[in-house]
User: Which sequence fits this backbone?
């Protein structure tokens, strides 16, 4: 079988060609037998992200067995934001971290934005401002991308205020 990429809800198909007599076929996903998958072709209708994995076929008869090479199925799912960044309140010089959690097929890339503009070198699932100041007051969000699309987190507001101080003590 050959590797395959399919859109969500499409059909993924693998096949194997073998020679011999009285052949029996058993398809596996990630090394586990698939119930009822006992022909030279495997069809995965309505493919979902849960169908991603390695597939192979074991062909056997009374004289032995042979394993096909593994073929990978990738269901092309764009990123989905699972956990959005939260609003933050801090005082001058505090360290503030925004985080996002996303899921999707393949490698995910991250780009943090401040008020809609990309932040240079802010390309991980979290973004830290090590010493906030009033110039950092803004709305922050993250754009998560993969080969199949992108998703933008909700905006998280950073407020920077001053801690209270006593200017006149009782006498």
Assistant:
């Amino acid at each position: 079988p050959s590797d395959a990429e399919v859109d969500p809800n499409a059909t993924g198909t693998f096949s194997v060609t073998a020679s011999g007599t009285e052949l029996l076929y058993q398809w596996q996903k990630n090394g586990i037998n698939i119930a009822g998958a006992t022909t030279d072709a495997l069809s995965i209708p309505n493919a979902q992200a849960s169908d991603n994995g390695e597939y192979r076929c074991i062909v056997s008869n009374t004289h032995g067995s042979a394993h096909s090479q593994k073929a990978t199925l990738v269901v092309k799912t764009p990123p989905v934001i699972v956990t959005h960044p939260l609003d933050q309140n801090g005082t001058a010089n505090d360290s503030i971290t925004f985080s996002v959690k996303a899921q999707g097929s393949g490698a995910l890339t991250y780009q943090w934005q401040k008020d809609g503009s990309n932040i240079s070198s802010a390309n991980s699932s979290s973004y830290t401002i090590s010493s906030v100041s009033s110039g950092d007051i803004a709305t922050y969000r993250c754009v998560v991308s993969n080969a199949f699309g992108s998703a933008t987190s909700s905006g998280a507001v950073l407020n920077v205020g001053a801690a209270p101080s006593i200017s006149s003590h009782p006498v």
The chain has no helices and 18 strands.
